[in-house]
Amino acid sequence: MGPKSSFPPPLLLFLSSFLLFSSAAQAFNITRLLGQFPDLSTFNSYLSQTNISIGINRRQTITVLAVENGAIAPISGKSMDDIKNILRLHVILDYYDVAKLHKLSNKTALLTTLFQATGQANGQQGFLNVTELSSGQVVFGSAVAGSGLQAKLVKTVASQPFNISVLQISTPILAPGIGGVVAVPVSPPPSGSPAAAPKAAEGPGASKTTPPPAKAPSAEAPAPSGDSAEAPSFADVPAADGPGADAPAGDAPLSSPPMPAADGPVADGSHADAPSADRTSGTTQVAIGTCLAVVMPFVSVLLDL
């Protein structure tokens, strides 16, 4: 007769059900799964050293982005804490296989990672950006601004639909603020670029280089003869120098007699009120004639005597 069980039948049934449930709950073992691929041995070793593998195995639905040995150098040499946080970015809290990635709404999505679940992420550090390019290539990157999408989808490593999907990517995903990574600022266009030159001509200083419009000639002064466009304006030429120019009424003395029409324009450098030699001679002759007219009667009287 065999030994009698110390557990009553109801308790034994409960323990059996719990063990079956526990084995069903752990649907996969990531370390054992990746152990089948020697080219992923370094990535698998990091998962074990940081205990990230334990957190993965506790999940029911998960996607792991694995990196082969030849491409994992960017995270080698970092502290174990930094490697741990970087690996958490490679664990997506949902199931994504290649077919699902090619059916993204608007060709892009924001994915929640295991690092976001820790509560240590700042801003968008705990999220990944996945995008399908126009060429059909799927790329991954940190959702932090300035990170870029450098990691390309290479192939499917293993999958258990709706439980676990292991996808290989071309390079580790690094997020600014984790492991000394900084965002790359966007450089402004150089100031001397051709695109900036037209804008400079439209600024406030452009009016200083614009030549002033030509001054319109006065309505009282006729335009000088000649077709040259370089002729000086009337503002720079004295009115008396132009041929046939009329002197302003206020410039001549009130006592000056009018000039005869036959005398023509006044010569350069002469004064308009200077008396001519003809006018002086005529005045002298009139004076002599007047004297003769007064003297002649007295001469006649003397002759009669």
What does this structure look like?
There is one protein chain. The chain is an alpha+beta fold and 305 residues long. Helices cover 30% and strands 13% of the residues. The chain is built from 10 helices and 7 strands. The protein has helices spanning 9-25, 30-34, 41-49, 52-57, 80-88, 98-101, 114-117, 196-201, 206-209, 277-304, and strands at 62-67, 91-92, 108-112, 127-132, 138-142, 151-160, 164-169. The protein has a 7-stranded mixed sheet with strand order 2-1-7-6-5-4-3. A hairpin with a 5-residue loop joins strand 4 (127-132) and strand 5. The longest helix is centred in the C-terminal third of the chain and has 28 residues, at 277-304. Residues 18-24, 185-212 and 215-280 have low confidence and may be disordered.
Summarize the helices and strands and which ones pair or pack:
Elements: H1 9-25, H2 30-34, H3 41-49, H4 52-57, E1 62-67, H5 80-88, E2 91-92, H6 98-101, E3 108-112, H7 114-117, E4 127-132, E5 138-142, E6 151-160, E7 164-169, H8 196-201, H9 206-209, H10 277-304
Parallel strand pairs: 1-7
Antiparallel strand pairs: 1-2, 3-4, 4-5, 5-6, 6-7
